[in-house]
Amino acid sequence: MAETDEIEFEEKGGTGFITLNRPKALNALTLGMIRAMIPQLEAWRDDKNVKAVVITGAGDRAFCAGGDVRAVYEAGRNGGSLTKEFFRDEYRLNRMIHVFPKPYVAVIDGITMGGGVGLSVHGSHRVATEKTMLAMPETGIGLFPDVGGTYFLPRLPGRIGLFLALTGWRLDAADAVYCGLATDFVSSEGIPGLVDAFGTADWAAGDAEALVDQVIDEAKETPGPSALAEFREAIDRCFAAPSVEAILAALDAEPGDWPAKIARIIRKQSPTSLKVTFAQIEKGAALDFDSAMVEEYRLSQAFMAGADFYEGIRAVLVDKDHQPKWQPGDLSAVTPDMIEAHFSPLGDQDLTFA
Ligand code: QUE
Question: Number of folded domains in the chain?
Fold first, then answer.
């Protein structure tokens, strides 16, 4: 039994079911949920009677809206240890999903942001629905796209990863499948049937991976055309520029309403977040998964020591005025030394994997 009712685990017919159970908070991920999920995944990994894991969110709005950044914000203001512990254990959980040896199916039937992407994208299967709204919006709260973003964003097609990272652009199911962030589309109405099918599957029939593919294939539909695909050429052109400033100049020079809208969005984000994120995604292309997570932990601790995360959470989640006053307020004031300092090793505080 888990010690928290914020997350539920159930084993049924060879499948381990995880339910994120904070529907009023859009299933935002708490340290307690992370700490309950890690040993449960270890147990299911080692239990030969468990053939696959399925993770869903309770309620009808969200898979998972992100990490419980409000609690991290409170800890950071009060000298609490959650600023260290939350990211450490969250990234360890992301890695555990990445190396999980059995099918891991995330049903992203609703809002899936930040930490929610980290609970889904590293698994073998991500099922999107018409309610899916997927984003990495961290530059808008003075943070950076973590939970493995260092690894998965540079590996998306073309320059889409950097585009998502700098803008926090919201993807629908068709966009998410187009990018590869989702693997399949099933209508929301078909989800209960899909989940039931995992609980009643005949795993004796053979290979678990093949059976999971077959269960999903029987439920899947086509998500329709991706709106993002239409802007792919402009994204690849503009986001290939060699700096955040150069990307903005390229967007300003591009004809049409869409590039202007994208430039407006980027100009609202934290300048520090933008420049560190640009460097993060560039460096991440060459990093293996574990090195990417070690680097992310360094970044998380640098952001906890800065100002913009607290201002971002204040503006977006506490006061909800959506008028953050970033420090510095201009891209030109964020120097190369300031950016590089975010990547400094933490010595005996560096992230390790037990
Ligand atoms: C960026 C984010 C998050 C966000 C909004 C952003 C995030 C997050 C939440 C969130 C939303 C609703 C809740 C909650 C948290 O919002 O990570 O507890 O009820 O968790 O712009 O990264």
Answer: 1
Q: What pTM was computed for the model?
A: 0.97
Distance (Å) from CA 63 to ligand 1 centroid: 12
199 as an active site residue: the answer is no
Could you tell me if 95 and 144 are in contact, meaning their C-beta atoms sit under 8 angstroms apart? no
CB-based contacts of 79, cutoff 8 Å, min separation 6 = none
Q: What is the CA radius of gyration of the chain?
A: 20
Q: Note whether residue 150 is domain-resident.
A: yes
- The binding-site residues of ligand 1, defined as CB within 6 angstroms of any ligand atom, are 25-26, 28, 65-70, 113-115, 137-138, 140-141, 316-317
d(CA 167, CA 164): 5
Distance (angstroms) between ligand 1 centre and the Cα of 46 equals 33
Closest CA to 59 of 104, 103, 21: 21
CATH of the domain at 220: 3.90.226.10
Q: One of 6, 138, 175, 295 is an active-site residue; which one?
A: 138
With respect to residue 81, please indicate whether it lies within any of the assigned structural domains. Answer: yes
For residue 281, how far is its CA from the centre of ligand 1 (angstroms)?
A: 22
> Is 354 part of a structural domain of the chain?
no
Question: Could you identify the atom of ligand 1 that is nearest to the CA of residue 66?
Answer: 20
Structural domain of residue 319, as residue ranges? 3-349
Residue 294 lies in a domain: yes
Token reading at 196: 């039931």
Per-residue pLDDT tens digits of the chain, which is 354 residues long: 457 899 999 999 999 999 999 999 999 999 999 999 999 999 999 999 999 999 999 999 999 999 999 999 999 999 999 999 999 999 999 999 999 999 999 999 999 999 999 999 999 999 999 999 999 999 999 999 999 999 999 999 999 999 999 999 999 999 999 999 999 999 999 999 999 999 999 998 779 999 999 999 999 999 999 999 999 999 999 999 999 999 999 999 999 999 999 999 999 999 999 999 999 999 999 999 999 999 999 999 999 999 999 999 999 999 999 999 999 999 999 999 999 999 999 999 999 997
